[in-house]
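Box 4.2: Ligand-aware structure prediction
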Amino acid sequence: MTLSLDLTGQIAVVTGATGELGRVITRTLATAGADVAIHYHARRERAEELAAEVRALGRRACCVRADVGDEASVNAMRDAVKAELGDASIVVCNAVSQYQWTSVLEQSIADFESQWRTCTVHAVLMAKAFIPGMVPRRHGRFIAINTECTMQCHPNQGAYVSGKRGMDGVMRVLAREVGEHQITVNQVAPGWMISDKYRGTADEIQPDYAKNVALKRRGYDQDVANAVSFLASDLAAFISGCYLPVTGGHVMPTV
Ligand SMILES: NC(=O)c1ccc[n+]([C@@H]2O[C@H](COP(=O)([O-])OP(=O)(O)OC[C@H]3O[C@@H](n4cnc5c(N)ncnc54)[C@H](OP(=O)(O)O)[C@@H]3O)[C@@H](O)[C@H]2O)c1
């Protein structure tokens, strides 16, 4: 028997594809065979560069802009993806907006609202937009990127953790609601990963962080992309409702 992770013929949508993890997730899904809709918010040039990389791999690609917290914007993105590539079978909710790291008492309500929109509402709108197209085909992979912070609840992460915990609740309920259609719903929860902005810089090594990781080091953007690709594949056909930490053992969800 040969095991292969083959996404040939699948159409993926990756939100936040222009970001640190999104671009590696995009390249990896394309390398595994998927056509990819590359979502961006502000950085169209980056999206176009990524699309050129995907096409160079022999896959189809398109660039789509949306505010992931806005229903009309997400629905317009869904229509653009369908027109350019077809019905998506893999959705990766990866985008997130920036916010100030500060205490709950100091955090602006605008930060709580933007995290709620780009984490929780983002997952809801992407599900409403893309899952109906998966149902008749009895196949779909709905994946969201969470974070180890959701389990840690450290100080100064109130807005972020509240948004991601809301997303976690939506994903678990959704898994039960759409599973009968053979659509899986899963979350990948990275630790503090090494990505382009750290690679080869003095900040790549973070001993204070790494000492609490079971593997005693930071992981890479590619580790997250590998987990996403696995969950998107037929190898993960019977995995749903999962919160999968990619943290080298930094956090360990209890049973
Ligand atoms: N990096 C890590 O180590 C790490 C660790 C744990 C969890 N995560 C999670 O992994 C995911 C990716 O993180 P990242 O570090 O790669 O993020 P990032 O580099 O900050 O990229 C964020 C992405 O989201 C898009 N975006 C921002 N605001 C948006 C909005 N309102 N509507 C639509 N798109 C918006 C950006 O688009 P433009 O570029 O076009 O502006 C960009 O593509 C996030 O969900 C994050 O919580 C990351």
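In the box above, the bound molecule is NAP. The CA atoms of residues 38 and 63 lie 5 Å apart.
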